[in-house]
Amino acid sequence: GSRSTFQPSAGYAGVFGGWDVFATGTFRQTSQGIEPPTGSLNSIHNRSEQLRGLLSISRPIGDQYRFSVIGGASANRFQIPNVPGVPVEFPVLGEFDSAMLRSRQWERNAFGIAALQGSTGAVDWQVAAFARQSSIHYLPSGTAEIAFNGVSSDVQRRSVAGGIQADAAWRAHPDHTIRFGLMSMVERSQAINGSTVLPLDPDGEALDDPFVIQDRRSRTGWLHALYIQDEWRVTDRLTLNFGLRGDVADQAVRASQLSPRV
Question: Cα 249 vs. chain centroid, distance in angstroms?
Fold first, then answer.
C-alpha cells in the first residue's frame, strides 16, 4: 500500500487433539508509523514495524466444565519523525542537523488468561487468573538531542500485573437471578530515566562535558472489587437490576467506594 505499507497476516481455526484452537498473527511495516510533524507528503525518519499475535485454546471437561487459555503479545518499533531546519540551541557539542536525528521507541505488550467455566444446577460460574506485562522504551539519538533540547533522555516505563477474577449467576427463582463476583489484582510499575544534560555556568551558559542524571522509581499497587446484583423480572416486559459494588484501591493513593446500582 501507500507509504511503503506491507501487512501480511495468517490465521488458523480448528480442532487439534480435542482442543478448540484459534490463532492469528499480523505483521505491519510502514514508512509513516506516526503522524508526521510537518506538512510534507513524506516524513523524515518515520519507519515502523509492528508484530501482533493472539492464541486461544479451550476444551470441555465432562459435561459441566470448560477450560480455556487466551494469550496475546505485540512488539512495535517506531522511528520518531524529524523536523528539518531546527536551529541548534546549545552548540557546545558542535553543529547538528535536526533532519538527521535517529530517535526511536519500542512498545511491547503481552497478556495471558486461564479460565475454568462450570455449570452446576442453578449456578453458572467462571474463575480466571490473568497476567499482563507492558513496557515502553524511548531511545534518544545519542547526545545530538542535547544540541536542540539541552537534554537527551533514555526513558523506560514498565508494568507487570496479575490477579484473579470470579463471577457467578444463581437462578434462585424464576423471577430472580442473583449475580455476584470479585476481582483482586496486584501491579508493579517501574519508571527508569537516564537524562544526559549539560552543566551550566553561573550565567546559564552551557559548558562542555555533559553528565548523566539517573532516576529510578517503582511502586506496587493493589486493586480489589466485588459486586452483587439481583436481576428481577418484574413482568415479561420489565426487568429491574439492582445491587452493590465495592472497590478498594491501594496504589498512588488509598481510596475505597461503595456504589449502589439500579
Answer: 19
